[in-house]
Amino acid sequence: MTLRVATWADATSDQGVSFAVEAQRLGVHSLWAPEAWRYDALTPLAYLAAKTTSVLLGSGIAQIGARTPAMLAMSAMSLQALSGGRFILGLGTSGPQVMEGWHGVAFGSPVQRTRETMEIVRTIARGERLDHQGRIYRLPLPGGAGRAIRSSAPPVHVPIYVASLGPANLRMTGELADGWIGTAFVPETAEVFLGQLRAGAEGAGRSLDALDLTVPVSVELTDDAQEAAKRHARGYAFTFGAMGSREKNFYNDAFARQGFGEQVAEVQRLWLEGKRDEAADRVPVELGHKTNLLGTASMVKDRLRIYRNAGVTTLRAGPAGRDLRTRLDTLAGLIDLVDEVNQEAAAG
């Protein structure tokens, strides 16, 4: 198994495009465009498809429910054509705050919705006639004038990665997906996620090795790892307090399964009471250390070994730096360290 480096994509500024082009030159595996309530994930990748030649381009994530499954398939096939086969369709359900507040789409049955979306996208991409009778989607609509249509575009393979956190969604990802878009991930407790992914994969008669296991890390090469960890830990206050409701926050649940339940609940309580600075102060600094790559080259290399040994295959890296040159230098340094760790492993 080889550990690889990916990074985030931004085609909305000249600096972002320059970073993407230089990241390709440095040898990153893939560029990932996010989607929340700012820019969409697919349009920037179409632009970067014209600016790059070899790097893979992934949506991280296209929100299920924001588009029909057929429109997702059409967009994915368009991006495969534009990029020469370099597109990865990263999917995720987001959460009820975004789907119901931003898109006006009811958030329900997320695992089944993801499953059926994948089935429909693959049916269309294979060039088959679309006749899907699921619990969420029934195509054509019963009793109407719709017909079972076949895409007029050439069939094409579209790799599908799924962002999943809960046990049922993780098992479904292991069963069906080409890759996993992980988050809230501590490599020391990787089995919380990988055990469920493995169960799903083996239940489908395949190995976990069939999946590209991707997780996010911020990267900061510094002599003051403790200060960096404090800053990164404080950033989790928004995640724990605002990325969900008091009753349900998928990120909080994921960290609770990794042993941080009491700390996360306290951060959420303080945030919801309007005590945001106090909430940020209560995030365990340990999370800043263990979910990122911070410190000297030697310290980062030690962490890379842990990620690799845990089974991670791709790091979605966010290199620190106030300017383009610094960020690229950090990215280049990370790639060199990953190469060294892979060479160590190959040498036994």
Question: What does this 3D model show about the protein?
Answer:
- The longest helix is centred in the C-terminal third of the chain and has 24 residues, at 324-347.
- Strands 1-2-3-5-8-9-10-12 form an 8-stranded parallel beta barrel, surrounded by 6 helices. Strands 6-7 form a two-stranded antiparallel sheet.
- The chain is built from 14 helices and 12 strands.
- The chain has 348 residues and is an alpha/beta fold.
- The model has no long low-confidence stretch (mean pLDDT 96).
- Helix 13 packs across helix 14 (324-347).
- The chain has helices at 14-26, 42-51, 69-83, 96-103, 110-125, 167-176, 191-203, 225-234, 236-242, 250-272, 276-282, 285-290, 297-310, 324-347; strands spanning 4-8, 30-33, 56-59, 62-63, 87-92, 132-133, 138-139, 160-163, 179-181, 212-221, 293-295, 314-319.
- Helix 1 links the parallel strand 1 and strand 2.
- Helices cover 51% and strands 15% of the residues.
- It is globular.
Mean pLDDT: 96
Tell me about the largest β-sheet.
8 strands, parallel, barrel
Shape: globular
- The helix tally amounts to 14
Radius of gyration: 20 Å
Percentage of residues in strands: 5-15%
Task: Give me the secondary-structure category.
Answer: alpha/beta
N-to-C CA distance: 12 Å
Say how many strands there are.
12
- Strand order, biggest sheet? 1-2-3-5-8-9-10-12
The percent range for helix content is 40-55%
Sequence stretches where pLDDT stays below 50 over 5 or more residues: none
Q: Please trace the helix and strand order, writing H or E for each element.
A: EHEHEEHEHHEEEHEHEHHHHHEHEH
